[in-house]
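fyi for ur records
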Amino acid sequence: MRTTALALGILLLATAVGCAENRQQQALADADTGYTPPVSIYSVMDPTSLIYTDVAAGATASDNPWRWTGFLLHPFGVVIDRVVNRPIYKLTSKMPYLFGYTAEDSMLDSQRR
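which gave:
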């Protein structure tokens, strides 16, 4: 029991000493490494960040290549939606008892553009 208490004490002391830096030391370390503060305090995933932050200013110049791939593949997705998905919804809405078409499915289908 005494050995366990001693080991815990040493572990606690080691972690406390590691966190004993002051703010001035942290500021000097940040200046040495070239720390740049974030553009905003808001997360990019937060919807209000679009109101209070210029997201384009925080984005990299090259952007993500998957985003460009998505732009290029979007027309194919629209064609598949119109040719495959929407006719399936129309067919299943004619016989809801057979296909399990619900009022929620009807609402979602009516909200499409």
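The longest helix spans residues 65-94. thats all i got for now
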